[in-house]
Design a protein that fits this description.
2 copies of one chain form a homodimer.
Chain A (H helix, E strand, L loop, with lengths): L2 E17 L1 H5 L6 E6 L7 E5 L7 H5 L6 E11 L14 E5 L2 E11 L16 H16 L5 H17 L1 E9 L3 E5 L7 E5 L8 E3 L3 E4 L10 E5 L10 E2 L5 E5 L2 E2 L3 H12 L4 E2 H8 L3 H13 L3 E3 L13 E4 L4 H8 L5
Antiparallel strand pairs in A: 1-4, 1-11, 1-12, 2-3, 2-4, 5-6, 6-7, 7-8, 8-14, 9-12, 9-13, 10-11, 14-15, 16-18, 17-18
């Protein structure tokens, strides 16, 4: 089992890592740890090692939040399933595509032999790096001018295919601008959004590592955190929907303008609201509302009212905002212009 | 002006860097510094920053020889000529080709507009990264099965082309196994070989940075160092020949078996030796001896006797080993099997 951590913020922030799991348990994730970030938003800096952090001066060094400054950070701790314990098999991996570095960190084991990628060749022996190279091949085929949704569809298609022959298949991926997150049905990835007002210092800790986000404190700073497990108690973490590629950008899950409008409309309504009401209220057709509400439910932003006797896609189905997410929703809605 | 440093050793060694030029002069090479090495011989680790080292905790950190352990190390300090002072424009650059990371660091300014590479796209705006991508495109065209000499010829051809429209064009490049070095007519690159018996501790220092090679101390450890300027006094540094790609591997300049044999033959002879004598003595035809001797002269291993009245390619031209290089030559010849 490996652990994934991802962060996206609306401005470059300092992030400090302390790796603890190795120390605490001795045998967990001894096979490597790594972190990637984007000092200038285009080119990636990777720091990783194929050894337990307990005797690593670099791991000690990364405690300081002055080292990593970025809008996007991905980190990984590894317990090897395939591939020797060497640098080239340590996550995250990076490759350049169309003048940007893409980064990838993965958790799970692909149990079927995969084809050799055509353009991007793995340096190591992991299924993870090969999957990454195969996804990049597809993105390359898609061409330079492809839009975000086209790219997301390709990544999601490949991810679903790989997860169909994996025990589990969770990954975080980035192009320096977006953070892409995917978990398989059997996998695990959670997210939270840190929106103002911020507490004085923010440390996210579990038994494996600790992340110091105390640099995120400005009244206009928003950050989304994605992790294999909830890293804190007492704040709202939601599970990412299975088999869906979720896009984060600038500290928030990526929702369309319509999705934000729906969220706003439901939040501002004093009672539960039906799909039909939403459609009328903001002038979007029913099918689009059904699709958008489904995604907002999957992201645990909306909930269907338990008194409903219809399915969640019925025009009479009614919804309210997840109470656990309301502080986050309010904070975001007060800051974005729709 | 930038500074280049390269190291190749016959086994992975610890290398400590201390960056001093920034401190000493304040305005030299303030635009970035970087180092690349190969923890497992295939995949490259790059540590670099687009700022003066004087206020950099990472630069401080790299003093420790426990961080960098590799058979090959390339380092660079930058004074920007083209491209903003940002991470993506900081040397060294890396790209994967045929399942290996290639690394590149450059010194000089290319004054003509270059074409856009087809496969490898620059992330930043430097002429250096673009030249690197163009060279890799050619190597990719050459195909996976190409031999070392074919690859070297392609790199040399491209390097000569770029240097023909550069003020100067010096670079160090590696595939994790070989260290390739090139300097243009107007450029500067020097090399030395550290062969046993080793002095207790080895620090190479100039006003810009200091390299701690004290880990190189074994009786069977050999290292070649290439640098823009001679980093020490009191040991033998030779200038690399201009417009030639010089290959280093496993701590030595790459010479063919015939070239080593010639060197051995000349060294063991009590007097100067003619090309004709060498040809007869080791059974290689004259043309091959002429070519090999020319290269050994360019590498400052051999010198033509000043009493000669013929050109150095004449069969009667006579040669002896460069006295400054004899300690190195003896140490190497006693260790390699020919």
């Amino acid at each position: 089992m490996c652990e994934l951590f991802g962060l996206t913020c609306n401005r470059p922030v300092g992030v400090g890592f302390t790796w603890r799991g190795f120390v605490a348990r001795g045998i967990r994730h001894r096979d490597g740890w790594g972190v990637v970030f984007y000092p200038d938003g285009l080119s990636a800096c990777v720091i990783k090692e194929a050894r337990p952090s307990i005797d690593s001066p670099i791991a000690q060094f990364l405690k300081s939040a002055n080292i990593i400054r970025s809008k996007i950070v991905i980190s990984h701790v590894r317990t090897a399933s395939k591939g020797a314990v060497v640098y080239r098999n340590t996550h995250p991996f990076i490759r350049e595509l169309f003048g940007r570095d893409w980064a990838f960190a993965h958790n799970g084991t692909i149990i079927r032999e995969m084809p050799m990628p055509r353009f991007y060749e793995p340096i190591g022996e992991t299924d993870s790096e090969r999957a990454f190279c195969l996804i990049l091949d597809k993105l390359r085929d898609l061409g330079r001018g492809a839009g975000l949704q086209e790219k997301a569809r390709i990544i999601e298609d490949e991810a679903r295919r790989f997860s169909s022959f994996s025990d589990r298949f969770n990954f975080l991926m980035s192009d320096g601008e977006h953070l892409f997150a995917f978990r398989s049905e059997t996998g695990s990835l959670h997210y939270t959004v840190r929106a103002p007002p911020h507490d004085a210092a923010v440390k996210l800790a579990d038994e494996d590592f600790e992340v110091d986000l105390s640099d995120i404190k400005g009244e206009d700073e928003v950050a989304a955190v994605v992790a294999t497990r909830q890293l804190t108690v007492g704040e709202s973490w939601a599970s990412l929907p299975p088999n869906k590629l979720v896009i984060f950008k600038d500290g928030l899950p990526y929702f369309s303008k319509e999705q934000w409008n729906i969220l706003k409309y439901v939040r501002r309504s004093p009672h539960r609201v039906s799909i039909r009401d939403i459609s009328k209220g903001i002038g979007i057709d029913i099918d689009e509302v059904v699709r958008s509400v489904a995604y907002l439910r999957e992201m645990e932003m909306l909930r269907q009212d338990s008194r409903d006797i219809v399915s969640p896609t019925h025009p009479d189905a009614t919804f309210y905002t997840n109470p656990n997410m309301r502080r986050i929703i309010d904070s975001i809605l007060s800051r974005i212009s729709l």
